Amino acid sequence: MRSRVAGAVGAGALVMGVAAAAYPALLRTRCLTWGATSDEINRQMPGDDLLPDPDLLATRAVTVAAPPHAIWPWLVQMGSGRGGVYTYDWIENLFGLGMHSANEILPQFQDLEVGDVLPVGSKGPHMKVEVLDPAEALVFCSTDGTWVWAFGLYPDDGNTRLVSRNRIATPNASFARQLVNLLVMEPGSLVMEAKMLNGIKERAERLGSKSTATA
What's the topology of domain 33-214? Predict the structure, then answer.
């Protein structure tokens, strides 16, 4: 019995070792830059100066067939206890984040201002609005300074490029924690953020088509 357990542990360690070696070399760049062009990856965005040397930098993007003003309301109402984040709510709520993604614009959450502080669930970080340029850029920074989340809206030949950039610092993280971040949190963040970006895209395109139809 002990030999079987030892064998299973050894096999698990081997799988983790292979994954740890393969992911950075083969998949990490694609994971952290999903949907983004080289210009978008290298472009300066509002909020970059708030955390100049992050331990993790992810820039992801999607093309939205709608103008920036059709995307903006969905961004400003995001948050726990607000409009949600348009991703897999059931996963978010496993961590007690209280996310319920709205399918309509919520007027009561459209008056976001610089300096507003939004909680991420009851135990999560608090995110402060640092930059708010309507229909152009929205930047949040955690109150402990370890996470900057920026959204940029860039018109593109009748469409809009919606770019999301996360800058994260992990000071004093143990080796085990770094490994979990690398092999679990980073791929997981792609799954969640891709769903979020596509969720915003779907909602904004629906809003944009309605605006065109009633114009």
Answer: Alpha-D-Glucose-1,6-Bisphosphate; Chain A, domain 4 (3.30.530)
Cα distance between residue 147 and residue 120, in whole Å: 12
Cα dist from 166 to 109, 141, 144, 171, whole Å: 23, 10, 15, 16
For residue 215, the 8-state DSSP code is -
The sign of the dihedral angle between the CA atoms of 86, 114, 155, 158 is positive
Question: Tokens representing 16?
Answer: 């983790």
pTM equals 0.83
Strand order in the sheet with 137-142: 56-64, 159-168, 147-156, 137-142, 126-133, 117-119
- Only one residue has tokens 């949907």, namely 35
The amino acid at 161: R
Domain definitions of the chain by residue range: 1-32, 33-214
pLDDT tens sequence across 148-159: 999 999 999 999
